[in-house]
Amino acid sequence: MSQASLRRLPAVLVIDDEVRSQEALRRTLEEDFEVWCVSSAAEGMEILEKEQSTAAIRIVLCDQRMPGTTGVHFLREVRTRWPDIVRIILSGYTDAEDIITGVNEAGIWQYLLKPWQPEQLLLTLQRAAEVWRLQQENQRLSLDLRTAEPVLKKRVEAKQEKAKSSFGLGSFLRARGSPLNAICDLVERVAPYDLSVLVTGESGTGKEMIARAIHYESRRASKPFITENCGALPDTLLESELFGYKRGAFTGAVEDRVGLFQQADGGTLFLDEIGETSPAFQVKLLRVLQEGEFRPLGSNRAVTVDVRVIAATNRDLEEDVRTGRFREDLYYRLATIALHVPALRERTMDLPLLLQRLLDSSCQALGKRVDGFSDEALAALTAYAWPGNVRELQNEILRMVALADTPQLGADLLSPRVLRQPRAAAGGGAAWTAELSGNLKERMDQLEMHVLKEAMGRHRGNKSRAARELGLSRVGLRAKLGRHGLEVGE
Fold first, then answer.
1. How far apart are the first and last CA of the chain?
2. Residue 155: inside a domain, yes or no?
3. Which contiguous run of DSSP H or E holds residue 388?
4. Which strands make up the sheet holding 308-313, listed edge to edge?
5. Parent domain of 290
6. 47/63 same-domain check
7. Claim to verify: residue 176 and residue 260 sit in the same structural domain
8. What does the pLDDT read at residue 489?
9. Calpha distance 444→433 (Å, rounded)
10. Backbone torsion region of residue 38, taken as left when φ is above 0, otherwise alpha when ψ lies between -120 and 50, otherwise beta
11. How far is residue 324's CA from residue 277's CA, in Å, rounded to a whole number?
12. What rounded mean pLDDT belongs to the chain?
C-alpha cells in the first residue's frame, strides 16, 4: 500500500517566498491538514506534478507577489492542468483588478488579505476541503448517472411498454365481428391528438378501460393518468379535490393541497359520472377546459396546466342538455369525440374470450386452480343478459371460483338470477320480438340467436338434445352457434 493511500488528512500546498510566513501557516494548519511548504512557483509546480498522480493535493494556498511571477499567473496554470484543486490567493494588496483577474482567469475560490487571522484562515481552508470533497462526490454521481442512464432509459421504456400492453388497445378482448372493433379503431385514430373525449355507456361496460387505452396510446403515456368519480362527492369536496386549496381556505384546511388537475399536469384526467355534477360546478369546469388554468381554493393566483380531459357517463347527456340539467357549452367542449361502449348483451361473440380471461384472473386472485366450465354452466352464462355488463360477469365468475370444490365449475355454482334467465325469457317471447330492430334479415338473425340461446339453456348445454328439439343435426347446430358467437363449449 502506498504512502499516499495511508494519508488521512487533506493535503494543502503553501507557496510563499517568506520563510517566517511559511512557518506561521504550517503551525496554524498542521493539526487539520497535511501541509507542504515551498518558496517558489517552480517548486510548487514540481510538487504538484509529483503528487497529483495520486491526487494528494486538494488545496493550493499561494502568495500573490512572488519573484518572477504572480499567484494569479501560477494558479491559472494549476487550473488548466488540475481543475479539481481548490485555489486560494493570499495577498497583502487590495488591487481590485488583481482580484477580478484572479476570479475570472484562474478560478480563484477565495481571496484572503494579509495580515490573516488564524481562526479565519483555518475555517476558510476547512471549507475549501469540503468544497473539494463535494466536487469529487458530484463527479462520482455524474459518472454513475451517465453509466446508469441507458439502463434507466430501458427500464422506463419497458415500464411504458408493459403499461401499454396492460391498458392499451391490446388489452381488449374482442372477437371477429365484435362491436368493440369499431370503438378500438376510433380510439387508435383519436388517441394521438389532444382532443376531449366523452365516453358513454351503461355501468360496467368498461368506460374507464377505454379512457386508459386512449391515454396509453397517446403521447402522454409516460405522464400521470388520474381518475375521479364526480358522482361520489358533493360540489364543495369535488372542487377542492380537483383544484386543490391553500392552507386556511376553509375550516380543516391545515396545509396546502395540490389538486388532481395539477397532479395530472402533462397527462390525462378521467372524470367519471360527469353527468352527476351540478350546473354550478359545470361552470367552473368549463373555465378550466377553455382557459387551461384555475385558482385553488383560497388562492388569488391562477395555476396553468396541460391536461387532457376524458369524461364518462351512463346518462343521456343530450337529453340532459335539452332539459337544462347539463350545460350545452360544456357538453360540446367535452364531446369533441364521443364514444359509446356497447353493452355486453350486444357483443355475445366476445363471451368466450371474456369467460376465459375472467376465469384466469379469478383463479390467480383467489389462489385456486379450476380447469373450466361445465356445458350447463356455459349455456346459462351465455343465455343470461348481463344487465350489469362485464362488472357483473366478473363478480359472478369470482363467486363461482370461490365456491368451487371440484376442478370444473358447474351450473350449481351460479347465482339464482343467472339460472332463471332462460325460463324467464322463454315466457316472454312476444314482448321480446317486439324489440327486434333492423331489416328482415337482421331481425331473423336476432330471432335465431335468441331461439338458440333458449334451447341451449333449457337443455343445460346438451347439444344433442337441443339439436333434436330444433330439428338440426349436431354439426348444423354447432355451425349456427359459432355464427352467432354462442359456441363457448369448445
1. 75
2. no
3. none
4. 225-229, 268-272, 308-313, 197-200, 337-340
5. 168-342
6. yes
7. yes
8. 46
9. 10
10. beta
11. 13
12. 83
